[in-house]
Amino acid sequence: MKDLVIILDFGSQYTQLIARRLRELMVYCEILPYNKFNINDKHVKAVILSGSPFSVLDENALDLDLSSIINHFPVLGICYGAQMIAHKYHGKVLRSEKREYGKAMIQNNTDDVLFKNLPSESQVWMSHGDSVEHLSDQFEIIASTKDIPVAAYKSVPDAFVYPVYCLQFHPEVTHSIHGTDLLSNFVFQVAGCSAEWTPESIIEESVRQIQEKVKDGEVLMGLSGGVDSSVAAMLIHKAIGNRLHCVFVDNGLLRKNEYDEVLQSYEGLGLNIQGVKAGDQFLEALENVSDPEAKRKIIGKLFIEIFRLKQKIFRIYSF
Amino acid sequence: MIESVSVHGPSVTIKSHHNVGGLPDILHLSLVEPLRMMFKDEVRRVGEALALPDILIHRHPFPGPGLGIRILGSITGQKVKLCQDADAIFIKHLKDSGWYHKVWQAGAILLPVQSVGVMGDERTYDFTIALRCVNSIDGMTAEWSHLPYELLAKISSDIINQVKGINRVVYDISTKPPATIEWE
């Protein structure tokens, strides 16, 4: 298992982008709801707290017991995450009159490792309502903007077991010109992660996990001809060979000639594939149905029925 | 899965994800999800490393319910045929012009709207096709593709001339968000 960075999601529209940036750095990360983190996962190398549409000053603000992560892992708080850390560790967070939204220039006048290879001034993306007014003596400011004195801060040496970094801005957004460099410095320099999330390692890891899960069982799989199901089929086939049974259903709602074209393109890959022509069945069930969710449900249900039939034919039961 | 991972957290799900319905209990099966934590571009890179044929790796994403959610409103065999024929013309033009691989996803949407037209000396009252074509890195945000006017003109005239039952073609110029890539 690879080094893992956990991103705790407090509902920011940018949370996915944090994950994207880390994956681009070839670091494996997972996004978890802010309250679903298992501290005992041995592979976790660092934790990132996302932004949020909430304010830490709201009565119903999303709350996390920070003692469950600080002192256990290096932590990076972004926007809301940063404000929550300041707020809970005796700093002062103020509600600003107006939201700061857009580009800003940060000045960093420290030689902190977070700014390694960064110019002393760089453009960042701000999107916040609250600001940090002051920090307790466990933290020090490491970057400022013209309007925001406390734009980035970190824990002073020995304040905690592992360093805690906080950014008021969003390094994950491409408008933060050196944002990926900042994240890179955090995961590699601060947290000591390795860049090992490559296609080859993904394959190796997936094959291992599939074998572990399936053991000597059989797998029934629906193929669509798309890249996702094709790659999934190849991975499972690599892991368990002919114990993978693929079904490709013509639901009558495929593209023109797609049924034949897809079956053709799978030839030579060694997969066990069975085609099922069920167009009439689907069209009949969909007659006079116009609500989109209802259509989705009917189509989904019919797929399941066809699978159920195949399951009996292949004698696949739970493992 | 990546897209709907926040289902249990504070972010709101926009619509039920095409592939992530979970498995109904009646099947008594366990779930194997090798791509659960991968982004689409990572899936493609893995596909390349697995030596999958190009045509499978670079096929545009296509929703699980298929044309079922590209034919707005109720579905009939005749509407499926209209949508398929228009879609095939659209995709063929994208491939011939080299645009297919420059865009993330494209398809024809059959609108439940009939409008008046004139074909030769005849008045028509036929359906409308909306062309959807977007650029995206991972499907989570998308920009409508700036296809050349000449190409759009050719696609439109071929669809209207060759697909009997369509007399109007429009181009969708909405980004995701706030619109979605698919219409339903």
Total of DSSP H or I helical runs spanning 4+ residues of chain B: 4
User: Structural class, from secondary structure content of chain A?
Assistant: alpha/beta
Helix and strand sequence of chain A: EHEEEHEEEEEHHEHEHEHH
Name of the CATH homologous superfamily of the largest domain in chain A: Class I glutamine amidotransferase (GATase) domain
Describe this structure in words.
The complex is a heterodimer of chains A (319) and B (184). Chain A is of the alpha/beta class. Chain A has 8 helices and 12 strands. In chain A, 31% of the residues lie in helices and 26% in strands. In chain A, the strands form 3 sheets. Chain A has a 7-stranded mixed beta sheet, sandwiched between helices. In chain A, strands 10-11-12 form a 3-stranded parallel beta sheet, sandwiched between helices. In chain A, a hairpin with an 8-residue loop joins strand 8 (152-155) and strand 9 (164-167). In chain A, helix 4 packs across helix 5 (227-240). Chain B has 4 helices and 4 strands, in the order H-H-H-E-E-E-H-E. Chain B is an alpha+beta fold and 184 residues long. The radius of gyration of chain B is 19 Å and the shape is globular. The relative contact order of chain B is 0.14. Chain B has helices spanning 40-49, 54-57, 77-96, 149-162, and strands at 105-119, 122-135, 143-144, 166-171. Classes of the chains: A alpha/beta (319), B alpha+beta (184).
Question: Would you kindly provide a brief summary of this structure?
Answer:
The complex is a heterodimer of chains A (319) and B (184). By secondary structure, chain A is of the alpha/beta class.
